[in-house]
Specification:
The protein is globular. It has strands at about 55-60, 65-70, 80-85, 95, 110, 120-125, 125-135, 140-150, 155, 165-170, 175-180, 190-195, 195-200, 210-215, 220-230, 235-240, 245-250, 260-265, 270-275, 295-300, 315-320, 320-330, 335-340, 350, 355-360, 370-375. The two termini are about 25 Å apart. The strands form 7 sheets. The protein has a 4-stranded antiparallel beta sheet, with no helix packed on it. Helices cover about 0% and strands about 35% of the residues. With about 425 residues, it is an all-beta fold.
């Protein structure tokens, strides 16, 4: 599928070969240094409504969202969980509650479909049951799809085709991939993948190629693999930076081929990026590891055909002050940190093709809303968040003063390399 190596150091090194900013005569601090790591405007999530352990899930096109929620009540009072569907593609967003005759368990999962129905997974004893929920006037309709006998199962992100939902049942020796919505006869087993699998990232817009993070039976490193759902779950290697590194795929964009991944190949876990099918090495920008916070990508700007370095990437930043938003482009090498709206469903959002980030949120004043943030340009100055020396910089700092060493790229899947990558 793609080929990757480390740019900026041999395996186990913690340096990067990405060139730093031009010399300006002033000392610079990394974006994440102390006070600069947490913008003053960052707001902690609204605590007025309890949240289930699950997340706010969006369809691939961002038209619908779904979550478990509960009505506000006095502190300490037990409240009933119920699914809620959000419609986001109209002139104004609105939410539709989908309660049934009994409350849901907080470990239930919901996933919206492109036709407005919501799939719910419930655990009942040693079975996983699946139903489609939809509004029918003032009531909620339910279409039972069937059940699977297993202890644990996780719904994967909605398929890009809008009508299919897959679920993963991981095991120590093999993991089972199920089609739980969109099939002809209820839940269908579509693939058995050797090893313990997790994650789940779609690689195309047809819903055929699925990436999973796999650890082979008996242990060893975790590697991302591609599963072809139209070839009986055929598995091919997707991501291998070094033979012993854990290489997990976090996000992929089908238009540009941009990949966001996490790997410990540089010596410790780092957030990096590469391009599907490219001969260039994986890069690990310094600006994506600000101090004292956790950074996770959750959305990539679509529509940037053959231009992966121009894609805007939205990142969730978690720190002591709560959760806020980061925006970054590979070509810009700077992390813009922005305040999230109060009550943001942290880690939920989608990009429009013209570079507007949509963030769903709900708080005491607004039960259903979407904040729209235009992606800042990389030539614009960052907000002045002072570091230790009184200066702020969102530009990627220089790497260690050593000549960059580039590993020989390792073929990944079906796109072997024919030449060694070279630094920029």
């Amino acid at each position: 599928m793609t080929a990757c190596a480390i740019e900026g150091g041999t395996a186990g090194a913690a340096t990067t070969a990405d060139p730093g900013p031009e010399e300006s005569g002033e000392p610079e601090e990394p974006v994440g240094a102390e006070e600069a790591a947490q913008p003053e405007r960052a707001a902690a999530p609204w605590a007025g409504t309890p949240r289930a352990p699950g997340t706010f899930t969006l369809t691939a096109d961002g038209a619908y969202g779904a979550r478990l929620t509960a009505a506000p009540g006095p502190p300490g009072e037990q409240r009933a969980w119920y699914p809620e569907r959000w419609t986001l593609d109209g002139p104004e967003p609105y939410a539709v509650p989908l309660p049934l005759h009994q409350p849901e368990e907080p470990d239930a999962q919901v996933v919206p479909l492109a036709d407005g129905r919501v799939l719910i997974r419930r655990r009942v004893a040693d079975r996983q049951t699946f139903s489609l929920l939809y509004p029918t006037g003032p009531a909620t309709g339910e279409l039972a799809l069937g059940a699977v006998e297993c202890d644990g199962m996780t719904l994967l992100p909605p398929s890009p085709d809008g009508s299919s939902v897959y679920a993963l049942s991981p095991g120590d020796h093999s993991s089972l991939l199920w089609l739980v919505a969109g099939g002809a006869f209820g839940p269908e087993l579509v693939a058995e993948v050797p090893g313990h699998c997790s994650g789940g990232v779609w690689l195309d817009r047809a819903g055929r190629m699925l990436a999973l993070d796999r650890q082979l039976p008996g242990g060893g490193p975790v590697k991302a693999v591609a599963v072809d759902l139209e070839r009986n779950g055929e598995v091919t290697p997707l991501l291998q930076i070094t033979p012993s590194s854990d290489d997990r795929l976090l996000l992929a964009d089908a238009d540009s081929g941009l990949l966001l991944l996490r790997s410990d190949a540089p010596g410790h876990d780092r957030l990096g990026w590469g391009v599907l099918g490219s001969c260039l090495p994986v890069r690990f920008p310094e600006c994506l590891r600000p101090a004292d916070v956790a950074v996770s990508p959750f959305a990539v700007q679509p529509g940037q055909m053959l231009m992966p370095e121009s894609c805007a990437v939205a990142l969730r930043i978690d720190g002591a002050a709560g959760s806020w938003v980061g925006v970054w482009r590979p070509q810009g090498r700077r992390l813009h940190q922005l305040a999230a709206p109060e009550g943001w469903s942290a880690g939920a959002g989608y990009w429009s093709r013209d570079g507007v980030l949509h963030l769903p949120y709900a708080n005491a004043a607004t039960p259903c809303a979407v904040a729209r943030i235009e992606a800042p340009g990389d030539d614009e100055p960052l907000p002045r968040a002072a570091g230790r020396d009184g200066h702020a910089s969102g530009t990627e700092p220089s790497a260690a003063v050593t000549p960059p060493v580039v590993c020989k790229p390792v073929p990944l899947g079906q796109a072997p390399l024919h030449r060694a990558a070279s630094p920029d």
